[in-house]
Amino acid sequence: MTTTLATPAAAPGRAKSVPGGRILLGAAVPLLILGLWWLVTGPLDLFTPTQLPAPQRVLDAGVGLLEDGALFAHVGISVQRVLFGFFFGAVAGLLLGSLLGLSRLADGLLHPTVGAFRAVPSLAWVPLILLWVGIGEDGKVLLIAIGAFFPVFTSVHSALRHVDPHLVEAGRAFGYHGTRLLTTVQLPAVVPPVFSGLRLALAQSWLFLVAAELLASSEGLGFLLIESQNNGRVDRLLLAIVLLAILGKTTDALLGIIERKALKTWA
């Protein structure tokens, strides 16, 4: 007697994943925007070149800056400022957020003050930074670090305040105390919200970069924005905006890869 084994049916509602399908899906909207851009500046001719240049003109502007070496200089210095500012701001936010999240005394003493500073608009720091630090690289990095600090601080502080107390007690039962308890039990328990804060801080770093470079700079993508506006070069202005979007998304994707590795290790 022959027994036939039935093949399990696929779970309803679960489509088979296609390699690269998520990338193609994510590229659909940018390609649609690019197509509409070409349509309204080409066949439909709804805008003049001074209002909205065609995509080809923006690409030509990028090629021109690339050929004279200016494009790499603008992109390189902006990326450098963002990475330094993000690093210093994130480290400071992680340390202070951990202190206030773990100590009720420190939380009661410092949290109202930190919350008040968090409400200060970003541009309000600029005059003070210019007076104290100057218009050099230190001032720009400091402004970006301020922007990166508060999202990390808020996420770490809030996450540590809501760690399961039973998990902490179990760690103490195994002899973990102080720094060892923090690094072994508490921080791994808050990895997802911490990385959410880091990704928000990275986005804030790019926002604060533009604020820093718009006000006092001779190079960088923010400087390219204001210079293009003053010279009426809308093609270069749009190029700077597109580059900021690409760089912001690229750095966020890289941080997302680190997040997934961290979640596999700790969470």
Question: Could you characterize the architecture of this molecule?
Answer:
It is a single chain. The chain is an all-alpha fold. It has one domain (67-266): Orthogonal Bundle (MetI-like fold), CATH 1.10.3720.10. It contains 11 helices and no strands. It has helices at 21-41, 55-67, 70-102, 104-118, 125-132, 137-161, 165-173, 178-189, 191-215, 221-231, 234-265. Helix 3 (70-102) packs antiparallel against helix 4 and helix 10 runs antiparallel to helix 11. The longest helix has 33 residues, at 70-102. The termini are far apart. Residues 1-11 have low confidence and may be disordered.
Short structural description:
The protein is mostly helical and about 270 residues long. The chain has eleven helices and no strands.
Radius of gyration: 24 Å
Q: What is the name of the CATH superfamily?
A: MetI-like
**CATH topology category name:** MetI-like fold
Unreliable sequence segments: 1-11
The H-and-E topology, N to C, reads as: HHHHHHHHHHH
Largest sheet: none
Q: What's the CATH first level? A: Mainly Alpha
- Quickly give the CATH architecture: Orthogonal Bundle
* Overall morphology: globular
Seen as an oligomer or otherwise, the chain set is: single chain
**Count of individual domains:** 1
Beta-strand percentage?
under 5%
* Integer average pLDDT: 86
- Give the distance, in angstroms, between the N- and C-terminal Cα atoms: 50 Å
Number of helices: 11
Q: Structural class, from secondary structure content?
A: mainly alpha
Key terms:
267 residues
